[in-house]
Amino acid sequence: MTIKTKRYPNATTKQLESLEQLVVILLELFNIDKTDIYAHAKIAYKDKNSAEGVYLLEYLRNKL
Length: 64
Prior knowledge:
The protein has helices at residues 13-29, 40-43, 54-63. By secondary structure, it is an all-alpha fold. It has a domain at 33-64. The protein is flat. The model has no long low-confidence stretch (mean pLDDT 80). InterPro entries: Amidase/PGRP_sf (IPR036505). This is N-acetylmuramoyl-L-alanine amidase domain-containing protein.
């Protein structure tokens, strides 16, 4: 599965798998819930219409 973004190259399957593994470790390490993860564009945006990180966040929330 690849995730398409408008500004960056598509994430590869291997990158998505690595991201998922990292996030699982961080969730456990910091004892947080997946609902405590935010897309970069939603908390530190330059353009209010930016969707940076939103696709990856949706992918993660569906996988975790």
